[in-house]
Structure prediction request, 160 residues.
Amino acid sequence: MEVIDLTGANFAGKTVTASYEISRDADYNNNIYFYTVDSADGNIDGIAPNASGYLQAALDNIVNTGGLTAADKAKGTKGSFTLEGGDILGIAIVADGTLAEATSNLSSVEGVYLSYIGANTDSGNFDHIKFENNMFKFEDLANGGDQDFNDITIKIDFTV
Prediction:
């Protein structure tokens, strides 16, 4: 389970700037989102990650509704966005789609994969997000795909 904890004294109650660099090595145009959870175990309003309704609760709690992507496979993307400190953030990837597409018709995207494995659209048995070398790495194919975790990567730094 990969989460971002912004509850510490350095962030709580403050406006936080998230600066990121994204690259991709996949043909899919994936989008990365961050969603708030109530605690490190992933619960959202009393719904556990492996419970019915969790995926929708996570999508409803997205804090960057525009999504982050590397539209140009060769160049990657840099940018930043702001959010309020004090939250724990789960990470979601919409494989070859957007949040709008996933919420209007889930079958129109290749998959939605979350920090909490039990909530993933591919039966919940596969990890699609890893954190290595100060970078989140994603696998965008269902059922574990090729396990290369280079389909889209994001390095993110938080400052107040």
